[in-house]
Fold:
Amino acid sequence: CKSLAKVKPNIFANGGDRKSLNDVPEFGVCSKLGIKMVDGLGKKIRASSKLIAEAAAKKAKLCSK
Structure:
């Protein structure tokens, strides 16, 4: 959100995994600054939360050896 406030782009694009633009954390800053939000771009391949969980599991496994 801080980056959006500094850059102030005309458009903020997000992947296709949101049910509503109101669910997007950046919604407030985009509304305040008049940034057009575009959703549903492309097919979701992997969730960032899943990638983070996988990385944490690998780290835990490596650290336990």
Remarks:
- The longest helix spans residues 48-63.
- Residues 2-63 form one domain.
- Strands lie at 11-13, 36-38.
